Amino acid sequence: MTFEVHAQGAVHVFDCFACAIHRMAPICEHCRVQIIGQGVEVEGHWFCGGHCARAEGKVGIVDHV
User: Fold this and answer.
1) Which domain of life is it from (predicted)?
2) How far apart are CA 9 and CA 37, in angstroms?
3) In which element (H, E) is residue 54 found?
4) C-beta separation of 17 from 6 below 8 A
5) pLDDT tens digits, one per residue of 8-17
6) CA 32, CA 45: separation in Å to the nearest integer?
């Protein structure tokens, strides 16, 4: 059984969630980890959390736990 993911005008077909995550999850621009779940987007750049965003010089980012 396959499923489709519609994103940004494209349709992607997968047969498992692991493949979908591997293909679709953004990458932290600081530590290069795949972001699964909550991430931080700052000025069009993706980070896994506030720590990595601040390490790249972004200000005003707060992690909420």
Assistant:
1) Bacteria
2) 22
3) helix 50-55
4) no
5) 999 999 999 9
6) 12
Residue with tokens 């489709």: 4
Q: Torsions phi, psi of 16, nearest 5?
A: -155, 155
pTM of the full predicted structure? Answer: 0.76
Helices (H) and strands (E) in the chain, counts: 2, 4
Contact 30, 54 (CB under 8 A): no
Instruction: Using DSSP bridges, classify how beta strands 40-42 and 3-7 pair: parallel, antiparallel or unpaired.
Output: unpaired
Single-letter amino acid, residue 45 = H
Average pLDDT across the chain, whole number: 92
How far is Cα 14 from Cα 61, in angstroms, rounded to an integer?
A: 34
Structure tokens at 31: 């530590």
